[in-house]
Amino acid sequence: MDRMKKIIEHEHPLNLIDLQPNYPLYEEKYDDDDDDNGSGELITRQNFRCRRCDRCREEINWFHRYYYECAHSCDYLLHKFCGELCITLKHTSHPAHTLDLFFLTHTPYWCFCVLCGRNEAVGLCYYCSGCKFIIHGNCAITSVEDRLIYHPSHRHPLAATPKPHLSQCNACGKKHEGTFYICTTCFGLFIHSDCAFLPENLMIQNATNDTFSHPHPLILSYSFPIKDQEDQYHPNCRVCENGFFKRANTWIYKCEKCRYYAHIPCATSRGTENRLLIKNYEDSEYPDLLHLPFPDESYSIPKHTFAKLVKHGTFGADEGNDGVKHNFHPHPLVLVSTECSDTTSTPTSSKTNVLSCHNPMKKVQLLCNACVRPVTSVPFYKCVNDDCNFVLHEWCTQLPTQVEKYPGHPKHTLILHSNAPDKFLSVFKCDVCLLECNGFVYSCVICDYHIDVTCSFMPQNITHEAHSGHHLLSRSFEKEHDGYCVICKSYIDDFQCSFACDTCEDVGVHVGCALLLPREIRHKIDKHPMRLSYLPAENHKSEYFCEICEKELNPEKCFYHCYECAWSIHTFCAPHILQSETSVSTDDEYHFLEGAYKYVNIKFGGIHKFEPLRHPHPLSFVQGIESDGKCTTKCRDAVKYRPILKCQQCKFVIHFDCCRHYDLFDDGDDDDDDDGHDDGDGDDGGDGDGDDDKSSDEII
């Protein structure tokens, strides 16, 4: 191969430059050194700035591998194939005359080629002045070798097709019309010219006109191996939110630091208009639209619905000097309106000082008996009996006694009960969110239909930041198509109530994920607030592990993350620190639901007697910890994290579910003062307690 070239239009000789001396070796490589700005830019494989050929006026690309440049530093450059073109040409398409090489040094010339039939602006062509016969310079090249590019995506050189055609591109997976580069050695490889000359790295905000942004350059990768997809929990494209579907050889743009991946058309704005960016509702049509998630644990559906009805300091006509009488509690209640005091007692103890508001940083738990949401501030109502942990938010005193024509059960009116009728320890499974609960319940005893307070008043429409904030999500009690939850990334079961997106047919949100996972929580493991995240965090180089259960965490599913300390926890592990856990095991056999914690709607506590067990001591309703061991019954399964009945005087423990199966619980022997529920005072489904016949819209 000649290393020196002399051409007629330039006074100096030209040197042949090889841009890829190590071809076909190629390796994606980042600068892993920690720098001050943390940019992590790609280490360049060649010190080459793309410039234009002084003959054809088209770009000289690194993938062409060879080019000529002036030996005297005149900044004169030519493609290798342009520099080796003959000055005159005898072509079979015009045998009568010799064709002369014609090129413009400044402006491309529009001309019609008799070979390819296209009228294009070109920098050079072969021209017969007598016959006005024109052939594009590229069309005149007869040697396949002169059409080659040396692309790092493939081990063999690629040749340009002589004519444009329609075909599917192996790089992006889309159909294109135009020039393709094919491998003459391997059968079936087609790379469209638009993809073949993509930049090696780009800032996605520049490529998408600031529609999407990322702080680091994205590197072009020529494959996404299935093993890598599995190791990264099958991530979705950050632009269109669709998956890569185990297509190992499809090209992508990626940032390995942040686990940021994007399809080629998405990252370069060559895809169709993104459905997630089109707002599918008008603000004027939904003036009271609820935008989720809630800011923190102090917000809830009952607060959102009933807080505006509260008149602070007044409970109702039954208020007196000794407190006020609540229809669903045997003891008077008093309004706590001063700042909460501190306590060191454990939250599961019946002696917990309820004047201390809910504070995860101090392992203090205070839950409302109605909605089972945290009581984070004053004022609130508490039982005058210090041994009773019955507590109510002010707004939960405004709950209506019945709900008519509830969309999920329109044929019967739902009646409010403080204890679920005919349910062991008043624990019921909500027929909407499918979570177990022992708070107040709206029930249809005829149909055995029960829903918790939160689900009773959830709105018809919401938006959620996990789904871009641009799309309206509508409540649906019967799922009409397959879909997954965009928060926990789990499947939404058939006939399970959810919030569905009408625009994106495969997208929805579990009720529990939408309503029970606040944007920000406080946790004792970290002094900073932890934020709800739906995607891998930026600049997180290490693997993800939950700081509570010490198990691996999938960052493609929702989790809480501290961006100051780079600590993460599962959403369903967040409540555990509130219990008296002393150690964490990584081999427990009990698994959790994704998203909201399975027992987030259960208020533990209370002392009970269970005669069928023939155990001499009262049993506490608590959540199991590792030191509790295994269930005393024949099931012998571990009790860690699960609801249990536990003897405080000996080591006897039994799963709540195992105990429930006895179905012989003696309600008359319950210690009502300790569990805060009126188990023996008549609220058993409307047989004389007065709540079913109460005509008022409030329960006070």
Automatic annotation (TrEMBL):
Keyword Ribosomal protein attached: no
UniProt KW keywords: Metal-binding, Repeat, Zinc, Zinc-finger
Natural source organism: Artemisia annua (Sweet wormwood)
GO MF entries: zinc ion binding
Residue span, Zinc finger PHD-type domain: 112-173, 236-305, 367-434, 484-550
InterPro entries: C1-like_sf, DC1, Vacuole_Formation_Reg, Znf_PHD
Entry superkingdom: Eukaryota
Lineage, broadest ranks: Eukaryota, Viridiplantae, Streptophyta, Embryophyta, Tracheophyta
Region (Disordered): 670-700
One Pfam family it belongs to: C1_2
Designated name of the protein: Zinc finger, PHD-type
